[in-house]
Specification:
Blueprint: H1 7-29
Length: 30
C-alpha cells in the first residue's frame, strides 16, 4: 500500500482510468 502514496502511481492510475474510459466509449459507439 506504500506505493499508493507515490504521485507517479496515482498519475498512472488516472491515466489508465482515462484510457479505459475512452476505449469503452469508442467501443460503445462502434
Amino acid at each position: 500500500m506504500g506505493y499508493s502514496m507515490e504521485p507517479i502511481s496515482r498519475r498512472s492510475f488516472l491515466k489508465l482510468a482515462a484510457v479505459t474510459g475512452i476505449t469503452l466509449s469508442l467501443g460503445g459507439c462502434s
